[in-house]
Amino acid sequence: QVQLVESGGGVVQPGRSLRLSCAASGFTFTRYGMHWVRQAPGKGLEWVALISYDGSYKYYGDSVKGRFTISRDNSKNTLYLQMNSLRAEDSAVYYCARDYSNSIDYWGQGTLVTVSS
Amino acid sequence: QSALTQPASVSGSPGQSIIISCTGTSSDVGGYNYVSWYQQHPGKAPKLMIYDVSNRPSGVSNRFSGSKSGNTASLTISGLQAEDEADYYCSSYTSSSTWVFGGGTKLTVL
Fold it and tell me: Would you say residue A95 has pLDDT above 80?
């Protein structure tokens, strides 16, 4: 069965960096684009970024463009999100998710990032 | 990219039908047949209910259906059940090769 397991969340000070990881299993990772989606506490979903199946193209939401970088290692079936210059408003649960026909068919359980001094 | 517009809340009694709307622009909802809908119960990850405007993934009840007219997409839930009480989000692919979500709708089953 498809499994997406995020890790790397935690408490970080404003302006610092954090890298999230997502270990994928149960499907052929190299065939799918992958998303990061976040959800601030008590708020709605916000799309963060997408990377194509082979990493050749990447797209970002306006609020993270220039600060966050999505990447993947297909040899390790792992997705990453490098987050730099973190702000309080980046505090959220970050979900790793699989793309299917420009929708998201599988989601991880999420990892919580809290940006606070 | 502005969020798609959804009603903050809807409600219905068991057995009834409800419709949740999702309004965007010609650059997202109106421009592509890539509208999807997600159900999220408290403390859980979202679940895909509808993709490509009106397609149901395997395992999703046929009580859930989707449609689109112009810049507005809709999710219909028929034969409401207590377990349908959740937050629902729409999403669309956009002309910027990005994705946008709606603000979410809280469904209450009375």
Answer: yes
